[in-house]
Amino acid sequence: MKKYSLLLVILLMGCSTVEKAVDAYLMKFDANEYKLITDLRTNSSLAKAECFDVEKSRKNVEKLYLTALSLRYYAEALPHNGPIQKSSVELFDIVDGMNKQYKGNDKVSEVFCKVKLTSIENNAKTMQVMEGSKPK
User: Fold this and answer.
1) What pLDDT, in 10s, does the model give residues 44-53?
2) With CB atoms 3.0 to 4.6 Å apart as the test, which of 26, 57, 102, 136 could cross-link to 80 if both were Cys?
3) What is the SS3 assignment for 14-51?
């Protein structure tokens, strides 16, 4: 019985490795996904200059929220796209948290704004590298 259990564990681990290898082979560059990621990076970078104004920041964050949500939904529908799917959810969570902070709050600090936007920008940059390294 122990031999069968060990064999089963080895086979299951092997299947996982094979699945990852197949996903890595089948992942393809997607220009639409890359554009959404680039839009997030660009808009978060530009929005930092307006962090002193809560109303402008609120509008910038709403725009980022819609783009991040679009990326999340788009990425989850693509087959063999695990790393970008995971990263898009994590990035969306950052943007969503920022969006919630601005909802009905007129006293969001400039420092909070700049730190969160820098985090969004850095995550998007990492995702650009991930997406850009996929075979075309």
Assistant:
1) 999 999 999 9
2) 26
3) HHHHHHHHHHHHHCCCCHHHHHHHHHHHHHHHHHHHHC
- Cα dihedral 35, 50, 91, 80 in deg (nearest 10): 0
Do residues 65 and 95 touch, judged by C-beta distance below 8 A?
Answer: yes
pTM recorded for the entire structure:
0.80
Asked whether the beta carbons of 67 and 94 are under 8 A apart, the reply is no
User: Looking at residue 11, what DSSP letter applies?
Assistant: H
Cα 64 to Cα 37, 41, 74, 84, 121, distances in angstroms? 11, 9, 15, 17, 11
Where are the strands (E) in 29-134, listed by range? none
pLDDT in tens, 71-106: 999 999 888 888 999 999 999 999 999 999 999 898
Q: Which two tokens stand for residue 86?
A: 């995971």
